[in-house]
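User: Please run a holo structure prediction.
Assistant: Happy to. Please share the sequence and the ligand.
User: Here you go; the ligand is pyridoxal-5'-phosphate.
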Amino acid sequence: MAYENSKHIYEKAVKFIPGGVNSPVRAFKSVNKEAPIFIKKAKGSKLWDEDGNEYIDYICSWGPMILGHNFKNVIDGVREAIENGSSYGLPTKLEAELAELIIKCCPSMDKVRLTTSGTEATMSAVRVARAYTKRNKILKFEGCYHGHSDALLVKSGSGLLTDGYQDSNGITEGVLKDTLTVPFGDMEKVSKVLETKEIACLIMEPVPANMGVIEPDVEFLKFVRDICTKTGTVLIFDEVISGFRLSLGGAQEYFGIIPDMTTLGKIIGGGYPVGAFGGKEEIMDLIAPVGRVYHAGTLSGNPISVRAGYETVNYLYENRETIYKKLEEKTKYITENLKKLADKYKVPVCINTLGSLYTIFFNELDKVKNLEDSLKSNTENFAIYFNTMLDNGIVIPPSQFEAHFISLALTDEDIAKTLEVAEKAFKKISEK
Ligand SMILES: Cc1ncc(COP(=O)(O)O)c(C=O)c1O
């Protein structure tokens, strides 16, 4: 496959943008590629780059495109919304309707605020939790990613992990001291920290997906719920990835564990910039103008994003009986067959799957349960896998430590081609 145009664009991009990209994982650094591909357009399950190469897409914009690219209802809605103007800085009817729809789907929420990104959602939720509890410290899990606000960039997953570090520079000692971390799944360490009763909130991805996908033990989720209640700690489920993906009501509905607060993003914007945080009324009513916890945004509740989000969530709501089953079936078929092919070529892999998310870890473990397990993966094998897929028209996350996202648009033909190419990749790894 030729990548000449992408290479030229990259040469220009690095002159004007740090690393040539606006989000680090996009640089393809960890998969030994000279330059990333630059995308020109997308439709359904496919992407096309600036060289005219066609790819089956397993990134799906890191989650939002659950219905596939340029889904008709979303595009029609956005076209109509754009005709009425782009942004007013004043409220609109559809914001209330999207909020109502989100609350109808999400068991933990009485009220919800819209933001422009998942980062703002988690950052604001932490601020509210601190005000509610009048405590300063927060607890998160190693390898979970909650966006790029200072307090949450500690022992972080996603792009940091991809580039081989976990704590960002540029964060003050004071902030670092207030963010505590423990390994995912470690009940004893969670107890020890929360029993101090100094912790405002435990913020967690109920299904970690930023150190690769980790399937949580439901007993662990019950445990965190109970200990947060017992110690007066606000339990925040960061469902920016899992919300509207594992099920309509996210991981909280899937596992039947109700947090005090929830953060959302990605799918609720249908591919446009959105985030949201919500929870119990007594917590949410601390936010200005009702209370004195400040949260605002020039583009919060932007009418185009809200329309795209509304069309997406509404379609998921109306088709909830079939969509999630279909997505799971596709994912199960792909992952079971990937495992069979890897075994055929004696390439050690552990595939963690939940709902329509999966990660293929190139390691010998039966199950990857936390960051320590995830870091045992052979990133060299992953890079061969990635590059073989890319060169044969399949784009997967350019990192061992991210999730593959399945969309409803993925066809049986796409899946057959994916497995055919994966076989080539496993063969190549076995011949190394
Ligand atoms: C679980 C989780 N929380 C928060 C965020 C931050 O969202 P955004 O990138 O929209 O700021 C992400 C982004 O990938 C995420 O995966």
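The chain has a mean pLDDT of 96.
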